[in-house]
Amino acid sequence: MQHEVLIAPSILSADFMCLGDELDRIATADYIHFDVMDGNFVPNLSFGIPVLKQVKAHCDIPVDVHLMIRNPDEMIDTYLDAGADMLCFHIEAAQHAHRIISRIHERGARAGVALNPGTSVTLLDSLLYDVDMILIMSVNPGYGGQSYIPTTAQKLKKLRALCQEAGVSPLIEVDGGITTQTAQEVCSCGANLLVAGSAVFCGDYAQNISDLRTAGKAGMGQQV
Ligand code: DX5
Ligand code: ZN
Is 72 among the domain residues? Predict the structure, then answer.
């Protein structure tokens, strides 16, 4: 059981003209959240392999790669070769989810599965025992800076119940519209890994990370 709240700043909100400096300013993060968008599964393009290699060369913080791409089955090895420490794909886009998870594990990385806001957690039934992390999207994927969808709380509670019933405790990541307020809410419902883009990359990044962690811990202490 994870009792800490982990923070994963999404570098989608970073200033790409000075990405190295931006990474240095989030040195207290637990993961770097790396959003890969293909302009097909989601209506936007972001970055991919060459940028991931440079991020890995620059710092030691583990990288949490969020693949928002069609056919992730075909790209798993490429992202592992580039250094993904945790590799997460969307259940809605995968052909063979179980095979992907097995492959990620064979290659020594951690495997995550992501769910869009419109996708039920019951789909995870047969994967719960195999995944290291479950990513619950709290916005529709494709853009940073969107507002948190409030029904995420109910979904997290359902997921917590499913995990308890199965006797498993994967990391529960929430992504989209995370602020100190929503951090507290999602952690009170079982989340323990928070992605934040716009709430980290403004003002004092280290302070923002620390504030999110404090808010998340407060939520974890008030389980609902
Ligand atoms: C959305 C991405 C998120 C996004 C979060 O598709 O998966 O990781 O960058 O950004 P904020 O925290 O600004 O909602
Ligand atoms: Zn993401």
Answer: yes
